[in-house]
Design goal:
5 helices; 2 domains; two-stranded antiparallel ribbon; five-stranded mixed β-sheet; elongated
């Protein structure tokens, strides 16, 4: 659903009710199956958009195409625009549409947020080795999917040069039976981490085990939450380490 959907012709309250409720019905069906992404981002975007329309008579446009299910939408990805000139009758109709939409979107957003909190509380990280090797902002983790364990690599990247926001990029390497790392796991693999197949590289990376109860969809929920958990762990560790260093001076 485009962010300018509310003032696309026809600007009619019943017609827009139908469009919004059909859209939210699809979202709610996915949320009821605990499929969190990309629904959470789009609900956030549409709720912010409707509230901006109500408060300032402007709407939001997204300046990029989302390439991943859980890709973050940053403030820098949004542009506010003035709504087109409307007749007095259409303005009144638009206000009714926005008030109705704000309540419905808020309800679905609260549902998604509750799921996010539930899943976030159920996922945890255990450090297998190299707990203090977080400064490079890259490493490995093992996570279970459908009864099988998989080895992933991750790197933390700054999203844009002009903003401070970071993201956790991950790539599946292979299925793995235990926590023993060996060169053949990385052979002939195009990896995110430079020279990952070298023992002096992979043996010195921070290495996590992801703990979860397998009750939630993997690609739409568990993996996105895991990426955020790792991102927060690495960034918070760097902050705490910096505080310790400054106190010791």
């Amino acid at each position: 659903m485009d962010t300018n959907w509310v003032f696309q012709e026809p600007i009619d309250f019943e017609h827009k009710q139908y469009i919004l409720l059909a859209y939210l019905q699809k979202i709610e069906k996915e949320l009821n199956s605990f499929k969190l992404y990309p629904n959470f981002q789009f609900l956030s975007l549409h709720l912010a958009n409707i509230n901006l329309l109500l408060q300032k008579g402007q709407y939001l446009s997204l300046t990029k195409n989302l390439k991943e299910k859980d890709e973050e939408i940053l403030i820098s990805d949004l542009v506010s625009q003035e709504i087109p000139l409307l007749s007095g009758q259409n303005i009144l109709e638009l206000y009714k549409i926005c008030k109705f939409s704000s309540e419905k979107l808020q309800s679905s957003f609260d549902h998604a947020k509750a799921i996010w909190e539930l899943v976030n509380d159920s996922v945890s990280l255990s450090v297998i080795k190299n707990e203090k090797n977080f400064e490079e902002k890259q490493g490995l983790f093992i996570i279970e999917e459908k009864g099988k364990k998989y080895l992933y690599e991750f790197i933390i990247k700054q999203i844009k040069k002009e903003v401070m926001d970071n993201k956790c990029c991950v790539k599946k390497i292979c299925e793995i039976d235990d926590f023993k790392l060996k060169p053949d796991l990385f052979e002939n693999k195009k990896t995110l981490i430079k020279n990952l197949k070298e023992p002096n590289v992979y043996n010195n990376l921070i290495f996590f085990k992801v703990n979860h109860n397998n009750n939630f969809p993997y690609s739409e929920t568990l993996l996105p939450i895991t990426k955020r958990k790792i991102l927060n762990y690495i960034l918070q560790s760097k902050i705490l380490n910096y505080v310790k260093l400054t106190k010791s001076i």
